[in-house]
What we know:
33% strand; 3 helices; alpha+beta; 17 strands
Amino acid sequence: MVEGVFSRGGRASIKPVELGRRLLREMDDHRSVDVRGRRIVPNEFRFTLSAKDHAGFGDIDEALVAELAETAREYARSEHYHFMGPVTVELDVDNSLKPGRFNIQSRMKESGGGSGAGSLVLPSGQRVTLGGKVTTIGRLPDCTVPVNDPNVSRRHTEVRPIGSSFVLVDLGSTNGTKVNGLRINGEHVLNDGDIVSVGATHLRFEAS
């Protein structure tokens, strides 16, 4: 799970995979349970590195940050953890650190108030922006996300904005709607990185 782009390494004395493993341990060490019994983990992570190591990651900085965030999402799915908001990762300099040393700080942060924003990433890589309107998924061509699959109902499921969150609602479909491989009953609040499955089509929800 923590390999991916990490194998590229950069010129830092720290291996990117070390950052990935430390991030996962941070999630385990700081998990808690909310009022609904869900296991909540940090969604904002800040690594501090020596100036030399930070510069060494310069050529893969954006890819590394994106891969670390995706690693957190994948781990949350596998462990049935939940985030309070979008996953963010930062790499900063701490001049007091020696090369080869790094620290991590994390916190749980809710999505900002007001109307939320997010997107559904389709298998093709195309993004469908979610905003203040209901997004429908189904076999009908006039659905926001039309899916050509006989196992998908005409109007299969929809994503509704509620406050700063998005709720997935199955519309009585024949074969049901799944989130991270589990069939939902009624409404399901989407978390950053959740995989929504209708028929054989898998969509990734990303909060923003």
